[in-house]
Amino acid sequence: MEKISAPIVKKIEYGKKSIEEMDEQFADFGQNDLILNYPTVYIVEDKSSHNAYSVYVGETTDIKRRSLEHLKNDVGAGTDNDTASQKFWEKIDKSKTSEMYIIGHDHFNKSLTLDIENKLIHYMSSIDSVKLDNGRTNPQNSYYTEDELNAIFSKIWKKLRNDNKELFPLERVI
User: Fold this and answer.
1) Which of 87, 122, 160, 166 gets the most CB atoms within 10 Å of its CB?
2) Which long-range contacts (CB under 8 A, 24 or more apart) does 65-71 make?
3) Which DSSP letter does residue 21 get?
């Protein structure tokens, strides 16, 4: 098997202005096409004052559009009938500290991003300090890059861990 390239992991503030400026942010990063025009995986997180994290893991073929959809459509109206998901997105929207990790890879296709998303959800759900907003996973059947899943995932996790050891513990611990 050929050597698997390193994933791209970019962290940005999670807010309308930052999302709308993704094109400029990633142009400087040198990977805007791979991030903005191909499937990606993303993690939205916010740390509370109690050393706990609220986290959502997703995947999309259009990170900018999907991120803006979360802000526009998933924020609750502040009523008692709000779902837990709406309350999560409202908290994220109001927070000054919420961030988003955007993950790209030159081997990502829709199936591989779904499996990376699934594995991130499983890992994140096992961390005591994380309150995960995801309620489902969507495991894939066979696809042409499935043999690269574990190697790519480990490289992603290491990059995430390099940025935040508290939120992303050692993979072997999980």
Assistant:
1) 160
2) 66/42, 67/14, 67/19, 67/22, 67/42, 67/100, 68/16, 68/19, 68/20, 70/44, 71/15, 71/16, 71/19
3) T
Structure tokens at 12: 């940005």
Q: Which residues pair with 45 in a beta bridge?
A: 55, 99
Q: Are 31 and 44 in contact (CB under 8 A)?
A: no
Q: Rounded CA gap, 152 and 3, in Å?
A: 11
pLDDT band, residue 82 (cuts 50/70/90): low
HSE, side-chain direction, 13 A CA sphere, residue 22: 25
| Residue from 127, 42, 163, 156 nearest 92 by CA | 42
Half-sphere exposure of 132 (CA within 13 A, CB side): 19
Q: Which of 19, 133, 136 is nearest to 76 (CA)?
A: 133
pTM for this structure? 0.90
What single DSSP character describes residue 80? Answer: T
Radius of gyration of the chain (CA): 16
Interval 18-51: pLDDT, tens = 999 888 877 755 567 788 889 999 999 999 877 8
Q: Are strands 130-132 and 53-60 parallel, antiparallel or unpaired?
A: parallel
